[in-house]
Amino acid sequence: MAHESSYVPGNAVEKWIDDRLPIIRWSKEHLMDYPTPKNLNYWWTFGAILAFMLGVQIVTGIVLAMHYTPHVSLAFDSVEHIRRDVNGGRVIQAVHTTGASMFFAAVYIHMFRGLYFGSYKAPREILWILGVIIFVLMVTTAFMGYVLPWGQMSFWAATVITNIVGAIPVIGNPILELLRGGFAVDNATLNRFFSLHYLLPFVIAAVVALHIWALHVPGNSNPTGVEVKSSRDTVPFHPYYTMKDLFAIVVFCIPFAWFVFFAPDILGHPDNYIMANSQVTPTHIVPEWYFLPFYAILRAIDFNIFFIDSKLGGVIFFAGAILVLFFVPWLDTSKVRSGSFRPIFKWFYWLFVANFVLLAYLGSAPAEGIFVLLSKIATAYYFIYFLIVLPLLGRFETPRELPTSISESVLKHSTPVGGADPALAKTTH
Amino acid sequence: MATQSNLAHQDAPQPGRRDFLYIAAGAVGAVGVAGVTWPLINQLNPDASVLALASIEFDLSGIEEGQSVTIKWRGLPVFVRHRTAAEIAEAQAVPLSDLKDPETDEQRTKPGHEQWLIMIANCTHLGCVPVGESGDFDGWFCPCHGSHYDSAGRIRKGPAPKNLVLPPYEFVSDTLVKIG
After folding, report:
1. Please, what sign has the CA dihedral across residues A46, A229, A331, A377?
2. ipTM greater than 0.90, yes or no?
3. A160 CB contacts (<8 Å, ≥6 apart)?
4. Coil, helix or strand for B143?
5. Residue B38: how many CA atoms within 13 Å on its side-chain side?
6. Most buried by CB count within 10 Å: which residue of A71, A112, A340, A364?
């Protein structure tokens, strides 16, 4: 960052600390003075919302672990025990389970914001890649957490998802047995999933620290996509964005609280209130809503591709759907960062968003009739967007004229008097 | 301080004692790390109590024609089906060219015991337990991703790549089967 630390130790104790571990200096620089573009809109508050949600999940999770028993014969009952007997357990458990859904809702918005405003472009490629790593860790953690209540959906989710590994030729089966600790999902699997479900959130927290570090080196992107050119383009993070983020977190908590207090089970499945039974599969198994788009892609490949059988093919596309995100910074060839200034990109982008929602719907629909064909079309567009549209569009599209600076774009939308006040800054989106 | 001749000696391109010691020490360290890592990974593999359950015996005498049961072997569900004559005839009449994973009905049963179909009850797609006496081929239908199996447990339609897997088993007598 091109700014000097403005910290002056206020007294002898602060001076003593500053000479040994400049943690107050560091905090002031990164949590308060950090120069932030003054035109960030509310889509930019989801980073703070996600940090908040990670905290919520870790705190409620540690509390739940004090009452939960990771054993096949006790796990199901211990979750019911939490919901019925533990003081406040009904609410704490609901915060944790619906919290997972809210966490994913926020992360999808955060990612789609990045895709629209080109936040992944140079010099923020590593920032984006760390974000994708966090997403993969979140998916893994949420999946393992879903297994812990040991209901029918838990058990069959564990069976189906670990079986994905079995699709790998030759080494698939030994790895599958290694993962499960047996020939089928059983107590060994439940125990290790509990252990890893406890560990991974702290790994996520560590990668989040790297993510924020990688953010603070180039500074935030912004809705115009034009880099910060002078101190006139920025405001200090505190109080401008601490307050804006806090307000967004409060608003975000309204639907969150509604789920917790009025509909804690609405996002779940009734079958998960039946204890796990390895002899019977529920007639219609679907993953949690936040995995549905990727589940639809997994199911869409029901045909052999040359020597690759349908099962391995589905797994390759399933993994590819996430792996392709790592390469987005290099697949998008457009020099213009923000989608606001790319007239043709916008069409493909919103079609991609609609397509993603369609995939989610198809993931929940039974694999029959028209849904099978639609899944294939939607899967094709998912990959076409990244592998064909983004690389080619940069070459053929004529972008709109960019503002010369953030200040100019802000002033254009505001009255001259209010122009310098970031609270009045309108977004270009 | 180094003299002129010492400097000339250090600049020599051939690897010296130090390079050898450096690589040797690194190699020993790498072997040590690998040796410590392996038990930490290997502990994830199926343990002795899981492996101890690897073989079971099952009495078939209670299963009527047209009936099937699901038993547990190595933690896996296993279908034991007493097939009807019509099902056997249907399975034997299917030409191999119709099959995604070609296997004759004879290959999937034991000679003299064609009425008994014993297979691991996990769909070869992603491991769900298919529903019996349903699907388009009078066999099994997997509700998870829509795979259809015929009356010999062979994959006919849907995303599953293989026929339902046969566990290793043998008939101890006409009514007693040893699985595993």
Report:
1. positive
2. no
3. A285, B126, B127, B128, B144
4. coil
5. 5
6. A340
By CA distance, what is B101's nearest residue in A?
A: A309
Express each pLDDT in B134-160 by its tens digit. 888 989 998 888 889 999 999 998 888
This prediction has a pTM of 0.88
Distance (Å, whole) CA A199 – CA A319? 23
How far is the C-alpha of B109 from the C-alpha of B88, rounded, in Å? 10
User: CB burial class (10 A; 0-12, 13-18, 19+) of residue B4?
Assistant: exposed
Q: Which residues of B touch A164 (CB under 8 A)?
A: 126
Three-state DSSP at B64 gives coil
pLDDT digits (tens, 9 = 90+) for A63-112: 999 999 999 999 999 999 999 999 999 999 999 999 999 999 999 999 99
pLDDT band at A415 (very low <50, low <70, confident <90, very high): low
Beta strands B76-82 and B68-73, pairing class: antiparallel
> How far apart, in whole angstroms, are the C-alpha atoms of residue A132 and residue A322?
8
Task: Give me the residue from B44, B72, B146 closest to A367, CB to CB.
Answer: B146
Shortest distance between the Cα of B38 and any Cα of chain A, in A, equals 12
Read off the tokens for A378.
């939607």
**What's the one-letter identity of residue A24?**
I
Q: Which of A181, A184, A281 minimises the CB distance to B143?
A: A281
**Spatial CB neighbours of A170, under 8 Å, sequence gap ≥ 6:** none
Q: How far is residue A129's CA from residue A137's CA, in Å, rounded to a whole number?
A: 12
